[in-house]
Specification:
By secondary structure, the chain is α+β, with helices and mostly antiparallel strands. It has two domains: 161 residues, Uridine Diphospho-n-acetylenolpyruvylglucosamine Reductase, domain 3, CATH 3.30.465.10; 96 residues, CO dehydrogenase flavoprotein, C-terminal domain (Enolase-like, domain 1). Helix content is 34%, strand content 25%. The strands form four sheets. The chain has a five-stranded antiparallel sheet with strand order 4-5-10-6-7. A four-stranded antiparallel sheet has the order 11-12-13-14, sandwiched between helices. A hairpin with a 2-residue loop joins strand 12 and strand 13.
């Protein structure tokens, strides 16, 4: 690990000012960044620690939505009664991230800002049509994810909260890597008055994406049978030591069917 300067702001405004001034890197739970720094794959000269910014933590209801502060831990999302009652699929997703240490250290904002192509939260954000709130603006889920490890965030911008609209039905199913517990493929399905959304993580070469063919089929018939005959294009899917693009394409339809069954149960 290379040497760096460490900053501990107490407010969002102070964190943003430090970020702009130092051209540093934000750190929340550190579950991804610290590992990369140890391997010298990342070498920021300045770290701006968000752990002491109390306004970034917490979960609250706003109308028909659940708003989760960017600094809220995965374990807190999983244990939240508000999340469990309004969006149980989101609580279950948070409870299945990594191991106990990761869930008690990792944050929703850190996960989304990092945008790992096999992370779980991007599927929930895209699958529920959530809104990302930053210190400067709001960003719709469809506009936030720009590619592998890339987002719409500006260099001096930080996530402050995420607003999740409560769906009529939703579920998340993932086929996990047994070692890392990241998703080889994860599928989040939701249905509400505006239609059906299907988001896939772990499979795409550019990260999380919406499976429009599955959405169209499920909009007509929200049942596992509706997706059985659909072929997923493998052109933009990953092939690696864990699975081929063809296998991931097969998993997408299988897991989508299981997610629909779970959401409807």
């Amino acid at each position: 690990m290379y040497a760096f300067e460490f900053h501990r702001p107490k407010s969002v405004s102070e964190a943003a000012a430090l970020l702009a001034k130092s051209k540093g890197k934000l750190i929340a739970g550190g579950q991804s960044l610290v590992g990369a720094m140890k391997l010298r794959l990342a070498s920021p000269e300045n770290l701006v620690d968000l752990g002491g910014v109390a306004e970034l933590r917490g979960i609250k209801r706003e109308g028909n939505a659940i708003v989760i502060g960017a600094g809220t831990r995965h374990a807190e999302v999983a244990a939240s009664k508000d999340v469990q009652s309004s969006i149980p699929a989101l609580a279950a997703l948070a409870g299945g991230i990594g191991d106990r240490q990761v869930r008690n250290m990792g944050t929703i904002g850190g996960s989304l800002a990092n945008n790992d192509p096999a992370a779980d939260y991007p599927a929930a954000v895209l699958g529920l049509g959530a809104t990302i709130r930053t210190n400067k603006r709001t960003i719709a889920a469809d506009d936030f994810f720009k590619g592998m490890y890339e987002t719409a965030l500006a260099p001096d911008e930080l996530i402050t909260a995420v607003s999740f609209p409560a769906p009529k039905k939703a579920a998340y199913i993932k086929f996990r890597n047994p070692a890392s517990r990241f998703a080889l493929v994860g599928v989040f399905v939701s249905q509400d008055a505006s239609g059906v959304r299907v988001a896939v993580t772990g499979a795409g070469s550019a990260g999380v994406f919406r499976a429009t063919a599955l959405e169209q089929a499920l909009a007509k018939n929200f049942s596992p049978d509706a997706v059985k005959g659909i072929k997923v294009d493998t052109a933009k899917l990953n092939t690696d030591l864990h699975a081929t693009a063809e296998y991931r394409a097969h998993l997408i339809t299988v897991l989508a069917g299981r997610a629909v069954a779970k959401a409807s149960s």
